[in-house]
TrEMBL record, chain A:
GO terms for molecular function: ABC-type oligopeptide transporter activity; ATP binding; ATP hydrolysis activity. InterPro entries: AAA+_ATPase, ABC1_TM_dom, ABC1_TM_sf, ABC_transporter-like_ATP-bd, P-loop_NTPase, Type_1_exporter. The chain crosses the membrane at residues 35-60, 72-98, 150-170, 176-195, 264-284. It comes from Actinoplanes italicus. Keywords: ATP-binding, Membrane, Nucleotide-binding, Transmembrane, Transmembrane helix. Residues 36-319 form the ABC transmembrane type-1 domain. PROSITE patterns: ABC_TM1F, ABC_TRANSPORTER_2. Residues 352-573 form the ABC transporter domain. GO terms for cellular component: plasma membrane. This is ATP-binding cassette subfamily C protein. It is found in: Cell membrane. It is a multi-pass membrane protein.
From TrEMBL, chain B:
GO terms for cellular component: plasma membrane. Gene3D superfamilies: ABC transporter type 1, transmembrane domain, P-loop containing nucleotide triphosphate hydrolases. The chain crosses the membrane at residues 41-63, 75-95, 148-170, 176-194, 260-282. Keywords: Membrane, Transmembrane, Transmembrane helix. Residues 41-313 form the ABC transmembrane type-1 domain. It comes from the Bacteria. One of its GO terms (molecular function) is ATP hydrolysis activity. This is ABC-type multidrug transport system fused ATPase/permease subunit. It is found in: Cell membrane. The keyword Transmembrane applies.
Length: 580, 545
């Protein structure tokens, strides 16, 4: 069965901080010079930014001593304007360089992530579920990219501003720095409290939001079901409960933010009081001037903005890091077991050979039991059986998705599987077809569509092969999507084709159409067909009936009918219905 | 009540969507729908913003009066003033934020109630089926419009703060105040000019990023398909190409950001330097005290951010909320009750169903299981007509000889249940999908058995996953069939219920269908011989023209 539940130990790994740091360092190769420039330039430009407060303090002392004139005013104004201009330029360049390095590293990482995601052994992904992998290659990438405008100024300019301003204060008016250090624990406590409380509350808010979106989507997609079963009232209540759950979480989150604000305000108030008291004492002892106190006050005011900023982006920083850990968790999965692929058969006359194969998912019960199957090259075999009989599992063991528990499997290297999963890739019709055969010409593509009976699609779509299909493009019916998959199979031209397509949404007429398409796609190659319709089975060279993981009947259509077993009973019921 | 949200959704009434409202009026109506919250929030926000701007003023005066004079009494007074100021502004900020947050959440909820009853779950099913856009309207647009609540509160407070700064400057030294108040808008305007190009490019870059992220999600979602045809290398190559284009976009965007930061930093710095220099000159001339100079420096630094916030946050917010209001109104257009039936006609508990299709008619007598064989399009038309008999269709549906559209919606739904061909499972467990519409627990068990769910019947409390993706196509279809059978509806319409089910299991279902539907009527649209084989009668419909 396909509905395997992902257990916790099957989940994809998440990297720890150390591994993430190591990987980011490795990916930063080629950008390290840039990063060194960022560090130096960041320190230089924030240091230049110290000039205006110092200039104002200097000016005030000159006024107080009566030594200021027009020249002083002009000098101070010019110094302020010049340093502001230089500081702005330096800061801008710092941020540009840092942003470019950040995005280049992220691009390299996301490319590695997708490449690794697609080359992971399929059973690893099947166990963990594709949902997690999709979320890591999309949501997490977005989270890290979106954090850039918040994170980059913080780790470059803001952090430097705090360090340099404190340093400047210590160098110019050191007693004020000491006074600030006394107040510092207030900020430290605020930050620790926020880190304990904030992320949890925000996670809950985001989770509630995605649950709400999910419920709305389900009501919209399931409109016909809601209507047909009269579920409107019930769905409305469900959606509204989800809507209010967001409100509850959002109010909690805003409360936490407003409590953080209050704590930061307390810190600000204490810092400014400390400046006043220190200034008062120092000036009283002649150890500082009014200008010095003003410089200190301006430096502290300039410090408070970045400190608040730092607090508010810490949450973004944390969730970006969590996303990074999840991405790197995938890119660092060791892929040693590419030797999973079943070997090619020794005798070219026998395309597929299974000898005494057993299989079970994890430690669960055996799904396949003593399967021995030999498919001569060119033969088409149908597998018939009830749900849970092991048909799809047999297909995936032959395909090499799952290694057999015991026994041996041999099949041609060039094998293509079409599963129940219907997926149209966002892009042009051509893109969808050339995925499997990048070098195919347009004529070959048209011929493949024609063979699978999908040539009508070209007339239906406004731009022919250039028509955009998939998410956001022209919608295809499931039957059309399945025809595309079969056309892709034709273009790949494998030795063995395994068809496990169910076409659940296709109507009855379309089923007949797909039967003919599959028939054309299988012509001239070895085929294994998991039959979802009896007509499909009847058209094959041989039919294998499975029950409880074992092969119970095997033979030609007429042979099995004559034998009078399970297949014969099915066929006669089918024929009876046909005649009504 | 004001602070803590109740766990249960509050009972709010939907907004009236009158056709004559322009988006601007709709925004205004939404904003002023809770004046008891908005007005106090606005007054408190003014205290908060003016308080923030007053901090440098108090510091300047304190340095001038206490530090420059060495007067301990003055020091104590001004520290007291500073602390009082912080207490006031912190308290006001806290109250404003909470009032705002609550107002915004209540507004959002009320807008969602409006859209849920009007668009997503219309009572009588006559309204058009909601398209995918409703999801974005109910999440993003609702949030943007509700944020309009903030539009009243914060910008007005900011304008008040600008007024305060202006007044303080004018009081300190009026020519200086005039220069600052005339110069600041010019500085902000020139920064706005610079930011226009940047924000356009940022949107472009965000689209690129969304495209690349979407491509990754798309490729990974098609993982099994890619593995099946061994297109890993080609898929990776394509993704890399998209990723590189996005990186180029990010680099270009960083460059524009740098230019903006450089230019706006320079404008800001030069403006502050110029006003400070002027204040310095007035100080040298003795027209301005040192305290006045310090205050001026503090005020001028507080002025620009306030103006920038209005230009770069409040104005775009207003434009966004108007656009969102327009989308919400469009979504609501044409909704509202369209109930036509005034009296409820008498029909029997299991009525006779007649469906007349051009060229043929189907009659299902009480307790009958009737198969209908038709081409896909005709079958879809019949199913649609039964799902929505009031939608005006060439196919007529009658119950006990009465046209179905004469019945009220709830009356029709209690008699007729239609299981659509396209399966939708809701997230939750298998049982969560069955229980809400099941008539009795016994019937639920019987339905699970009749739908041949043996392979997972033991685990009805297992989650089905998003859209049922933890189940195979065949399993999903059988859960949907069990859901339909468990309703025990007097009249049940099934449309191609076993297309994804293998022939062995399909045969089992055919054998069990009659038993679970005994004494109730069933109309089965299918061309599966196995299913048709178990019907009392089979009607062949002519192909649609």
């Amino acid at each position: 069965m396909t509905g395997t539940h992902a257990a916790a130990d099957d989940a994809l790994p998440v990297a720890n901080g150390r591994k993430t740091a190591g990987e980011v360092w490795r990916l930063s190769r080629g950008h390290r010079l840039r990063l060194a420039v960022v560090a130096i330039l960041g320190i230089v430009s924030t240091t230049v930014d110290l000039i205006p407060p110092v200039a104002i303090g200097f000016f005030i002392d000159r006024v107080r001593t009566g030594t200021a004139g027009l020249g002083t005013v002009l000098t101070v104004t010019a110094a302020m304007a010049l340093s502001a201009a230089l500081g702005a330029a330096g800061t801008a360049v710092t941020i540009v360089l840092a942003t470019r390095a950040y995005h280049a590293i992220l691009a390299a990482l996301r490319e590695e992530l997708v490449a690794r995601a697609l080359t992971l052994p399929q059973h690893t992904v099947e166990r963990a579920g594709t949902g997690d992998l999709i979320s890591r290659s999309s949501d997490d990438v977005t989270a890290v990219a979106d954090a850039a405008p918040a994170v980059i100024p913080v780790v470059t300019v803001t952090a430097f501003t705090i360090v340099v301003s404190l340093g400047g204060l210590a160098a110019l008016e050191w007693p004020y720095a000491v006074a600030l250090a006394v107040v510092l624990p207030v900020h430290v406590f605020a930050m620790r409290w926020y880190l304990r409380t904030g992320p949890r509350v925000y996670r809950a808010e985001r989770a509630a939001m995605s649950a709400r979106a999910q419920q709305i989507v389900e009501s919209q997609r399931g409109h016909a079901t809601v209507l047909g079963f009269g579920l409107g009232e019930q769905r409305h209540r469900t959606v509204m409960t989800a809507s209010w759950a967001v409100a509850v979480q959002a109010l909690r989150a805003r409360t936490v933010q407003s409590m953080l604000n209050a704590r930061l305000n307390l810190g600000e108030c204490l810092s400014l009081t400390a400046v006043l008291v220190t200034g008062f004492v120092l000036i009283g002892h002649g150890a500082s001037t009014v200008g010095g106190a003003t410089t200190a006050m301006l430096l502290v005011l300039r410090l408070l903005g970045p400190v608040n900023q730092l607090m508010f982006v810490i949450d973004t920083l944390q969730s970006a890091l969590a996303s990074l850990n999840r991405m790197i968790g995938v890119t660092t999965i060791a892929v040693a077991d590419t030797a999973d692929e079943p070997p090619a058969p020794r005798d070219p006359a026998h395309a597929v050979r299974l000898e005494d194969v057993t299989f079970g998912y994890g430690t669960g019960p055996r799904v396949l039991e003593g399967i021995t199957l030999d498919i001569p090259t060119g033969q088409r075999v149908a597998v018939v059986g009830a749900s849970g009989a092991g048909k799809s599992t047999l297909a995936s063991v032959i395909a090499g998705i799952h290694p057999p528990g015991t026994g041996t499997v041999a099949r041609p290297a060039s094998t293509v599987v079409i599963t129940q999963e219907i997926h149209v890739f966002a892009g042009t019709l051509r893109d969808n077809l050339t995925l499997a055969a990048p070098d195919a010409t347009d004529d070959q593509l048209r011929a493949a569509l024609d063979t699978t009976g999908a040539a009508g699609l070209l007339d239906l779509l406004p731009d022919g092969l250039d028509a955009v299909i998939g998410v956001g493009g022209h919608p295809l019916t499931d039957a059309q999507a399945q025809q595309l998959a079969l056309a892709r199979l034709l273009l790949t031209d494998p030795d063995l084709a395994i068809l496990d397509e169910a076409t659940a949404e296709a109507g009855s007429t379309q089923s007949g159409l797909l039967d003919r398409a599959a028939d054309a796609a299988l012509a001239g190659r070895t085929g294994l067909v998991i039959a979802h319709r009896l007509t499909q089975a009847a058209a094959c060279d041989r039919i294998v009936v499975m029950e409880h993981g074992r092969i119970t009947e095997s033979g030609t259509h007429s042979g099995l009918i004559a034998a009078g077993g399970v297949y014969a009973a099915l066929w006669s019921a089918w024929e009876a219905g046909q005649g009504t | 009540m004001l602070w803590q949200a109740t766990a249960e959704p509050p009972d709010v009434r939907p907004f009236e969507a009158s056709a004559g409202d322009g988006p601007g009026r709709f925004v205004a109506r939404v904003i002023f729908s809770r004046p008891r919250v908005t007005v106090p929030a606005m007054l408190l926000a003014i205290v908060w913003q003016v308080g923030e701007s007053a901090v440098p003023v108090v510091m300047g005066v304190a340095i001038d009066r206490a530090l420059a004079t060495g007067d301990a009494g003055q020091l104590a007074t001004w520290i007291g003033v500073l602390v009082a100021l912080y207490v006031a502004l912190t308290g006001a900020a806290r109250l404003t934020n909470r009032l705002n947050a609550r107002a915004i959440q209540l507004l959002q909820h009320r807008l969602r109630v409006t859209l849920s009853t009007g668009v997503l779950h219309p009572g009588d099913g006559l309204a058009r089926a909601p398209d995918g856009g409703v999801v974005s309207v109910m999440t993003n647009d609702v949030a943007r419009l509700a944020n309009a609540g903030l539009l009243v509160v914060l910008p007005i407070a900011r304008i008040a703060a600008i007024g305060f700064i202006g007044a303080s400057l004018l009081v300190t030294h009026w020519p200086l105040g005039v220069v600052a108040l005339l110069g600041a808008p010019v500085a902000v305007w020139s920064m706005g000019m610079l930011s226009g190009r940047l924000s356009r490019d940022t949107r472009e870059y965000q689209d690129l990023l969304a495209g690349t992220v979407g491509r990754a999600a798309d490729l990974v979602a098609g993982y099994r398909v890619i593995k099946g045809v061994r297109a890993e290398a080609e898929a990776t190559r394509r993704y890399r190409q998209a990723s590189r284009e996005t990186l180029a976009g990010a680099e270009r965007n960083a460059g524009l950001l740098g230019r903006f930061l450089m230019a706006s930093g320079m404008v800001n710095g030069v403006f502050v330097a110029a006003v400070t220099g002027l204040a310095g000159w007035f100080t040298v001339k003795g027209q301005l005290s040192i305290g006045g100079l310090i205050t001026t420096v503090g005020l001028i630094q507080a002025l620009l951010p306030q103006m920038q916030a209005i230009a770069s946050v409040s104005i775009p917010n207003l434009a966004n909320s108007r656009a969102s209001a327009a989308r919400i109104r469009d979504a609501l257009r044409g909704t509202g009750s369209t109930e036509r039936a005034t009296s409820t006609p008498e029909v029997s508990p299991v009525p006779v169903l007649d469906v007349s299709v051009p060229g043929a008619s189907i009659r299902v007598k009480p307790g009958e299981l009737v198969g209908v064989r038709a081409d896909d399009r005709t079958a879809a038309h019949v199913a649609d007509a039964l799902l929505n008999p009031r939608a005006g269709n060439i196919i007529e549906v009658r119950l006990d000889e009465r046209p179905a559209h004469e019945l009220t919606s709830p009356q029709y739904r209690t008699l007729v249940t239609v299981a659509p061909h396209r399966v939708t499972l809701f997230s939750g467990t298998v049982r969560d999908n069955l229980a809400p519409s099941a008539s009795t627990p016994e019937l639920l068990e019987a339905a699970v058995k009749a739908a041949a769910c043996e392979d997972f019947a033991a685990d009805l409390d297992g989650p089905v996953g998003e859209g049922g993706n933890r189940l195979s196509g065949g399993q999903r279809q059988r859960v949907a069939l069990a859901r339909a059978l468990s309703t025990g509806a007097p009249l049940l319409v099934l449309h191609d219920p076993t297309t994804a089910v293998d022939p062995v299991t399909e045969q089992r279902i055919a054998e069990r269908l009659r038993g679970v539907r005994a004494n109730r009527s069933t109309l089965l649209l299918t061309s599966s011989p196995a299913l048709l084989g178990c019907c009392d009668r089979v009607v062949d419909l002519p192909a649609a023209s």
